[in-house]
Design a protein that fits this description.
Shape: globular
Number of helices: 7
CATH class of the domain at 4-98 and 162-222: Alpha Beta
CATH topology of the domain at 4-98 and 162-222: Rossmann fold
Strand content: 25-35%
Low-confidence stretches: none
Radius of gyration: 17 Å
CATH superfamily of the domain at 4-98 and 162-222: P-loop containing nucleotide triphosphate hydrolases
Strand order of the largest sheet: 6-7-8-3-9-10
Largest sheet: 6 strands, mixed
Mean pLDDT: 95
Bound molecules: adenosine-5'-diphosphate, magnesium ion
Length: about 220
């Protein structure tokens, strides 16, 4: 069974009298361990699509199954619990805590979500720090790291809870060309290493080429 299955999904935003169809009748599926990008110009529906798959929001109509569960039926609370169990997130602006070190930023979701014993926790953090090539930077604070390094820490933080799925909405938008390609390649390496499914969005043509599967959105429709 596919890890993500989207069936006839539409999302309409209503602001006062105005209705915007951000997604129109989208159907697609994403297999486990896939490396998938959603591409398209600004306003084409990429963020809306990722928010649906990431269980941050729900569709106006249609069905979404993630890891065998029909998540569009979930209420807010269930969505939050499901995200904690199944999904990791990487953000465009890194979203690291400035007062925590690289190590502590990665530790944070473990403390919040999983009740791992201290020694096991340390082992997990060091392993993932090593995987993203940041072991020697572990005691630095975010403002002592470059953009590319910050995003490496954010990738590690997303992976620390061992999610089946990692969502990244324009993860390279604040990075230069070299760092952008390096971060996407790191994500692909992590997919190979841990079997994690990665879904990201971008409007950068150089980054699109790095995906294994690309879905193009235009005005909320697949093209
Ligand atoms: P992208 O990420 O590709 O730039 P979005 O998914 O953010 O596209 O937006 C798709 C469309 O939906 C755009 O027309 C945008 O203005 C609209 N939209 C997005 N979020 C909202 C919202 N919360 N309320 C109203 N309209 C929205
Ligand atoms: Mg967007």
């Amino acid at each position: 069974m596919a890890l993500v299955q989207i069936e006839n999904v539409s999302k309409i935003y209503r602001t006062g009298e105005i209705e915007i169809a951000a997604l129109s009748n989208i159907s697609l599926s994403i297999e486990k361990s896939a490396f998938v990008s959603f591409v398209g110009p600004s306003g084409s529906g990429k963020t809306t699509m990722l928010n649906m798959i990431g269980c941050l929001d729900k569709p106006s109509s249609g069905r979404i199954l993630v890891d065998g569960q029909q998540v569009d039926k979930f209420n807010r609370q269930k969505r939050a619990a499901f995200r904690g169990d199944v999904i990791g997130f990487i953000f465009q602006s890194f979203n690291l805590f400035p007062v925590l070190t690289a190590y502590e930023n990665i530790e944070y979701p473990l403390v919040m979500i999983k009740n791992e014993p201290a020694q096991k926790r340390e082992e997990m953090i060091l392993t993932v720090l090593d995987s993203v090539g940041m072991l020697d930077q572990k005691d630095k604070f975010p403002d002592q790291l470059s953009g590319g390094q910050k995003q490496r820490i954010a990738v590690a933080r997303a992976l620390i809870t061992q999610p089946k799925l990692v969502m990244a909405d324009e993860p390279t938008a604040n990075l230069d060309k070299t760092s952008s390609i390096n971060v996407i390649r790191l994500m692909r390496e992590m997919k190979d290493k841990f079997g994690t499914t990665f879904i990201f969005s971008t409007h950068d043509p150089r980054i699109m080429e790095e995906a294994e599967i690309t879905h193009t959105l235009v005005d909320g429709k697949l093209s």
